[in-house]
UniProtKB/TrEMBL annotation:
Species name: Intrasporangium calvum (strain ATCC 23552 / DSM 43043 / JCM 3097 / NBRC 12989 / NCIMB 10167 / NRRL B-3866 / 7 KIP)
EC number: 2.6.1.13
Name of the featured protein: ornithine aminotransferase
Required cofactor names: pyridoxal 5'-phosphate
Pathway stated in the Swiss-Prot or TrEMBL entry: Amino-acid biosynthesis; L-proline biosynthesis; L-glutamate 5-semialdehyde from L-ornithine: step 1/1
SUPFAM superfamilies: PLP-dependent transferases (SSF53383)
GO biological process: L-proline biosynthetic process
Key words of the record: Amino-acid biosynthesis, Aminotransferase, Proline biosynthesis, Pyridoxal phosphate, Transferase
Position of the signal peptide: none
InterPro entries registered for this protein in UniProt: Aminotrans_3, Aminotrans_3_PPA_site, Class-III_PLP-dep_AT, Orn_aminotrans, PyrdxlP-dep_Trfase, PyrdxlP-dep_Trfase_major, PyrdxlP-dep_Trfase_small
Gene3D superfamilies: Aspartate Aminotransferase, domain 1, Type I PLP-dependent aspartate aminotransferase-like (Major domain)
């Protein structure tokens, strides 16, 4: 039997108001349980989850294979630290490396930590392999980026909300407009070690770069002898209808940064995945994490990789993404200005005269759909990849009603 939380919806909201720091402004729904693409609130009302934990729940809530992997591991071993081997870590790293077609995996926990790890790897590679004078390395980053919340990462965010009043900031980053290959080329100096980008910008509003951009970045970084680093924390692991968003242009970056769905919506699991000529610059003691690669995380991460290895979820995302795209495109001119869709991932620019993104999300909540605005009047949809075709149609119909 499931335990039922007897506290009322209102009581929860007032508790949150009093005790939870205000770094988020959640929609007024209090979730108590969930399964697959659906969540249930404390009053027993069901909602279709069209956010999926910002893609951390690509396989839905409580996927049986992932819960089984977690439960099995919970009864055996949860933490060793990296001072010792566990019987879970190497198999996880092997399977993830094989999925990505790379040689090495460096496991961390949160996405931001994996981005930090990639930045440290790129800088160290710059000094030890490329021969950049120590302390001089520069990394080219994109306007509109979102890579997490650490002090170094927010240093190169151009979103004032994420960036302001957290200085002094970490130097060494050059910001160029997203999708502008000429600007990247112009920003490269002898000290440049890497280009860091999201193949599709999730927090930016599911912003898709011009066709061919990722290929151009690959060609340019190879030609100039610098690393291409793809933050696939939100775009990767099936979301776009391919294992990685880079696959949409048949591009293989030097470094993949993964997170979110890698933990199966159960625990935070992130990783940097690259070949030995890059990731090999990290030597014992030069980087680490107490919890990174712990047995519970590794067991769950490995189960996630085995779901992706079948190709079933990528295929679902591609097929149902087409249904989502057709549905959303039918709303253009009817309250929607523009839509950007890749797989089961959509950015929707609502006519600002009609409503803000937040207002649309509040109306969707009344319709029984959970979604999240990004900026202004832009809405992001990222339902779990286990969603059914009829539920995609329900999602589009619900959105259509909120636009009337
Ligand atoms: C969510 C996200 C991160 C940060 O991940 P956390 O686990 O929240 O630290 C980094 N990059 C991208 C592209 C993301 O979407």
């Amino acid at each position: 039997m499931q335990t039922v939380d007897v506290s009322s919806h209102e009581e929860h909201l007032s508790l949150a108001e009093q005790w939870v720091a205000r770094n988020y402004n959640p929609l007024p729904v209090v979730i108590a349980s969930a399964h697959g693409a659906w969540v249930v609130d404390v009053a027993g009302r069901r909602y279709l989850d069209a956010l999926a934990g910002y893609s951390a729940l690509n396989f839905g809530h409580l996927h049986p294979a992932l819960v089984a992997a977690a439960q099995q591991q919970l009864g055996r071993l949860t933490l060793t630290s990296r001072a010792f081997h566990s019987d879970q870590l190497a198999p996880f790293c092997r399977d993830l490396a094989e999925l990505a077609g790379k040689e090495l995996v460096l496991p961390m926990n949160t996405g931001a930590e994996a981005v930090e790890t990639a930045i440290k790897t790129a800088r160290r590679w710059g000094y030890l392999v490329k021969g950049v004078p120590d302390g001089q390395a520069r990394i080219i980053v994109m306007g509109g980026n979102f890579h997490g919340r650490t002090t170094t990462i927010v240093s190169f965010s151009d979103d004032p909300l994420a960036h302001d009043h957290y200085g002094p900031y970490t130097p060494g980053f050059d910001l160029v407009p997203y999708g502008d290959i000429a600007a990247i080329e112009a920003a490269i100096t002898d000290d440049t070690v890497a280009v860091l980008l999201e193949p599709i910008q999730g927090e930016g509003g599911v912003v898709i770069p011009p066709a061919g951009f990722l290929r151009q970045v690959r060609e340019l970084t190879t030609r100039r002898g610098i690393l291409m680093v793809a933050d696939e924390i939100q775009s990767g692991l099936g979301r776009t209808g391919t294992t990685f968003a880079c696959d949409l242009e048949d591009v293989v970056p030097d470094i993949y940064i993964l997170g979110k769905a890698l933990g199966g919506g159960i625990v935070p699991v992130s990783a940097v995945v690259a070949d030995a000529d890059v990731l090999g610059v990290i030597t014992p003691g030069s980087h680490g994490s107490t919890f990174g690669g712990n047995p519970l995380a590794a067991a769950i991460g490995r189960a996630v990789v085995s779901l992706l290895a079948t190709g079933e979820y990528q295929e679902r995302a591609a097929r149902l993404g087409k249904v989502l795209q057709d549905g959303l495109e039918s709303l253009v001119g009817r309250g929607v200005e523009r839509v950007r869709v890749r797989g089961l991932w959509a950015g929707i620019d609502v006519d600002p005269a009609l409503a803000s993104g937040r207002e649309i999300c509040e109306r969707l909540l009344v319709e029984g759909v959970l979604a999240k605005d990004t900026h202004g009047s832009t809405l992001r949809l990222a339902p779990p990849l286990v969603i059914e075709e009829g539920e995609v149609e329900l999602l589009v119909d619900s959105l259509a009603r909120t636009l009337r």
